[in-house]
């Protein structure tokens, strides 16, 4: 299993491929993809790449211009998935969601909305069952941000409150991973899901 973190250049290569083959129904940036993989790596049961890879593209694979495009994006995606799975399971302090940044009325604001939307995409394809109240509240932290509009922040945005919401996302994601990990361990399942390169 490859677990070498991606370089900035490799993230750029993924983003270029997402934009090249994407549309309104696909994941279009690495922030959303990072959230998507975080939820997959945290899920109660492993989701096969034959399910999650097409989901990146809105459920239907693109018409690849070359086999190399497909090969490269699969390799980079599976590597990033595996890095996140390993971090969450064995070194949660190293886990840091890949958020965006924007300027808002002269301030730099960290945005987690795209990441959270990606997280919810993965929950949908992984079919998470209902959560206990504590974990449901943690998930609501992510849901609330996913429902906000990142294209135009309101002029009256409470920046401090918004940034606190963003700061709560990583601890919520770690706690949700730990909850499902405890469930997997108690049933004797794999300690953490990870991706394999498939024949798609």
From TrEMBL:
Name of a matching Pfam family: UPF0149
Family annotation (SUPFAM superfamilies): YgfB-like
InterPro entries: YgfB-like, YgfB-like_sf
Coiled coil spans: none
Annotated Gene3D superfamilies: YgfB uncharacterised protein family UPF0149, PF03695 (1.20.120.740)
Protein's recorded name: YecA family protein
